[in-house]
Task: structure prediction
Amino acid sequence: MSEYYQQLATRIGERFGDAIVESKVAHGELTIEPQPERMLEVCQALRDEEGFRFEQLMDVCGVDYLDYGRGSLGEREFHLASPAEQAVNQRQWDKPRFAAVYHLLSVAHNHRVRLRCFAADADFPILPSVIGIWSSANWFEREAFDLYGIVFEGHPDLRRILTDYGFVGHPFRKDFPVIGNVELRYDPEKGRVAYQPVTIENRSLVPKVIRQDHRYAESAAKGEK
Result:
């Protein structure tokens, strides 16, 4: 299967040239990264040309790469680790923060491809909408907009789909507070539900456990002296 997708990656590279930034086969799956400004051109060809025939868009999802590169260590474990351990678990990441990932299926040829397209501006991420190519992108793009704040230019009805209209922020972003920004309560005077600033105190859910391992051996030895 990997050999087949290597051949497919080669055909895609020959067809699109520099419109594809990166192409990689891993775990028997092909992922390609098109240039944002040529995204629609690539998608149109992948759907219509006989060698590809990706008729179905199965899914679109957003990705936030904020703090990406800490490997298998969690936030607390990363800061407690020694410099050597941090270096082992640190990846180099020089790409933008937000991306949209598209999963395509060819029923005609029984093969799949994953497209990952990065939005250049982290403060206001914008990508072209593919709804004109695959109508199934409608609700998928609305979900990525709602949860990640990625704006899909050209979408005919880009509005929230999972959160309420008065919701503040985008809950799947890595820097979104766990307790949120606002909360709901019933206001008897107004006779309706009203928003107010969140009153829950932010607290850490990570248990403070002191482990007897090499990370504390040096500080314990200094304390004894």
Remarks:
- The first strand starts at residue 20 and ends at 26.
- The first helix runs from residue 2 to 16.
- The beta strands are 20-26, 29-34, 56-64, 98-106, 111-119, 126-128, 151-153, 182-187, 192-197.
- The radius of gyration is 23 Å.
